[in-house]
Amino acid sequence: xxxxxxxxxxxxPLNMSNVDTDQIMPKQFLKxxxxxxxxxxxxxxxxxxxxxxxxxxxxxGAKVLVAGDNFGTGSSREHAPWGLQDWGFDAIISTxxxxxxxxxxxxxxxxxxETSQDNVEALFNKIYADPNTxxxxxxxxxxxxxxxxSFSFSLDDFSQKRxxxxxxxxxxTFGYVxxxxxxxxxxxQWKPKLV
Length: 195
Description:
With 195 residues, this protein is an alpha/beta fold. It is built from seven helices and seven strands. A seven-stranded mixed beta sheet has the order 4-3-2-1-5-6-7. 31% of the residues are buried.
């Protein structure tokens, strides 16, 4: 997992509500277990429309996805955030995220930023007025700034530390190797006795 303290980027607008994980990453692409290579399948069916935002060259290279209300609802597939991150997104801004989608995103260092409908609408307006508009997301300060738009977002301290330091659950476990080894050596063997 890469370390993220600050994201400075342009934005891609996905002005749609209730976008579910089945649309983010369709079921036919869930057969692999590695985390890479899913970006090309992101919004697979919707990308068939040439006017879909991911097909718009104006938004190429955007690391921040600004989405409508209730993003990531539906089934709890990890592949949805994998695809978003593999496409190049470091953060998603919406008014609401499904809980499991939010946790799956944090687990890979994809930052879910929840804010008000007014802030999301203001960001959409900025993007439509000028696709080159940049946004700054500070994970350290839990703050978003885009010109005159400025707001804080909620992120628990443990998740914040993990994202800033680039620590996934395996990395965290490795931090306890000595204690695990000590416990393993000191615990009783619960083998059955042969009679």
